[in-house]
């Protein structure tokens, strides 16, 4: 949905530019891009020409290794200028490093931290230099015990487990969480609705927005945002589909 919003004209609430979408999980769907566009702006995307213009403005790069990703980030400045990029999406920053670096060894953890720091520095430079938003997705993981040992999950979120001895949280640890300016946590509420938590922001307090996903993308519930009550949401367990099923259908 963000890709669609970035490409539509400013007078329609968009950014009127192009998008760089870096896909490390092979999750990008051109079909879904078109579906969201046609349902969110039915009066604008009514012809094949308008849809071709949309897809031509979304530049997708598939990177399969950390070194390829770093090289791509280092060359993005030219792309931003030439293609009039108004949004950068990296989906996800966690995928490649979790496959390539075993965080249980100190040397690998050191190398992983350094690599993530380089990527964060480049993305911040691009955002600040060109005044464009950069959206980066993380993954979730299960941590156990007081030593915060981690079980990395490389597959879909249903594989993540939550139990009395472990809890689901964001991957990559505190170092990465401190690298971002704004941090949003997306979690399940029930079978239909999900929730966006503002866990970190330079301009907003902790808050929660409920939403569901429709043909036109994310749709917020009409009751608006509510203030988040409790401790830092970034320190709380993330609610995933598996845990909701256990709560709704106890055995």
Automatic annotation (TrEMBL):
Domain RecA family profile: 1-140
UniProt cross-references to SUPFAM superfamilies, sorted A to Z: P-loop containing nucleoside triphosphate hydrolases (SSF52540)
A single Gene Ontology CC term: Rad51B-Rad51C-Rad51D-XRCC2 complex
InterPro entries to which the protein is assigned, alphabetical: P-loop_NTPase (IPR027417), Rad51_C (IPR013632), RAD51B (IPR030548), RecA_ATP-bd (IPR020588)
Record Pfam families: Rad51
GO terms (BP aspect): double-strand break repair via homologous recombination
Domain of life: Eukaryota
GO molecular function: ATP binding; ATP-dependent DNA damage sensor activity; double-stranded DNA binding; four-way junction DNA binding; single-stranded DNA binding
PANTHER family associated with the record: DNA REPAIR PROTEIN RAD51 HOMOLOG 2 (PTHR46456)
Protein name as it appears in the record: DNA repair protein RAD51 homolog 2 isoform X2
Gene name in the database record: LOC106171906
